[in-house]
Amino acid sequence: MPIISPSDLLLPAEPGLRALARELYALAAEQPIISPHGHVDPGLLAEDQPFPDPARLLVVPDHYLTRMLLSQGVPPADLGVPSVDGSPVETDGRTVWRRFAAHWHLFRGTPSRLWLEQTFRNVFDVDTPLSPATADTVYDALAARLAEPGFRPRALFERFGIEVLATTESPLDDLGRHAKLAADGWGGPGGRVVTTFRPDDVVDMEFGNWSANVDRLAEVSGEDTGTYAGYLAALRARREAFAAAGATSSDHGHPTARTLDLSPAQAAALYDRGRRGLADAADAEAFRAHMLLEFARMSLDDGLVMQLHPGAVRNHNRWLHARHGRDVGGDVPQATEYVHALAPLLDAHGNDPRLTVVLYTLDEDSFSRELAPLAGGYAALRLGAPWWFLDSPEVLRRFREAVTETAGFYNTAGFVDDTRAFCSIPVRHDVARRVDAGFLARLVAEHRMTGDEAAETIVDLAYRLPKQVFKFGGGPS
């Protein structure tokens, strides 16, 4: 069996298609990275301090990795994941790394292994295959790189070719780290590092400490959240502050895609029940659904793009949540309905080109059945890339196959890496570009697209479309 060169990673195995894909990939590979949605800590770039040891950089914060080991009986505490209940956790980076390497075989065939191997090779220039026997060798090579000035966050940002990176913050964040970035010439409107308005913790009544968070919202906004009208004013004030810090979008991580257009009196009654601690699960769902309409109206006023990330059942692993808190691998996807759920929002604003709503899903079955027909029929809708549990090469391919016939390429929004792992950003974008090169090569080979059209399209997908959709300037001509 012929060996495929690492340069042909993920490109079609058939020689003729591979040659076409190589040419297309070369065009995409030279494009800057637009990263419009992710969870990198802005303090990383604001402070520009050296990264910690390899384990704390690559293993401890990566719930893709720690949840797999938990499934095989290795508790997160043994991997250094901080606890919220006071239970002890491993603090020695080398010990964590050895435990991780001892279970490296668990990641065969997974995108996590692909991303990490490419990160070792392309970011750190470490070619030694990871195994229990090479754990210390790889650790020491990575640690030596991390000690070099060229591996500080801002230096890597430049080397990665990132043009814009959007982080994600709560309205309760004082945006101080973004202020420092702006002062250093890195942030602010049109900057290289911008924020995203993520209001879940002050919108979702089932979020821990929701009412206390709303009190805090009053403090940071200077508005009285004792009334529903004051609450809306506070949210508008924070959106204004986020826009001043460079935000071009909001993000909404609701359990479902449901939207609801309540009267002001109905919404105020729901809000009041929540503030008095009397809201039940149905009230919380109705309030979340209504607030998506409110945020759409705010977007028409302030221009922020809406991102909707529904479908995650948060903290399904209750033991994990109790011991280690949120966002450590305890969430799972659920089936998500869009056609009826989004009807109130689309009835009100779906045909208004001033509004942009980028839809994501954790329910792959909805790509061709619901999402592509919706995006192909409403001016306000764009499709976000496969996300989270779906961000593998296989699903990226299936996404193009499922949605292109109905939504085309230009009702999609480009790739988003959605990562907390800063060093994986170029790797994840590279994977998406390789997959798109293979898909477009097939269309050319089947005489469904000319080579010139494919060349233009792959640059649009990699660079121009996300710039246009997320309002970073530029876009397809």
UniProtKB/TrEMBL annotation:
E.C. number(s) listed in UniProt: 5.3.1.12
Tell me if Repeat is a UniProt keyword of this record: no
Cite the InterPro entries for this sequence: Metal_Hydrolase, Uronate_isomerase
Q: What are the alphabetically sorted keywords of the record? A: Isomerase
The pathway this protein participates in, as annotated, is: Carbohydrate metabolism; pentose and glucuronate interconversion
- Reaction catalysed by this chain? D-glucuronate = D-fructuronate
What Gene Ontology molecular function terms does this protein carry? glucuronate isomerase activity
Q: Which PANTHER family match?
A: URONATE ISOMERASE
Family label: Belongs to the metallo-dependent hydrolases superfamily. Uronate isomerase family.
Q: What is this protein called?
A: Uronate isomerase
Organism for this UniProt entry? Micromonospora echinospora (Micromonospora purpurea)
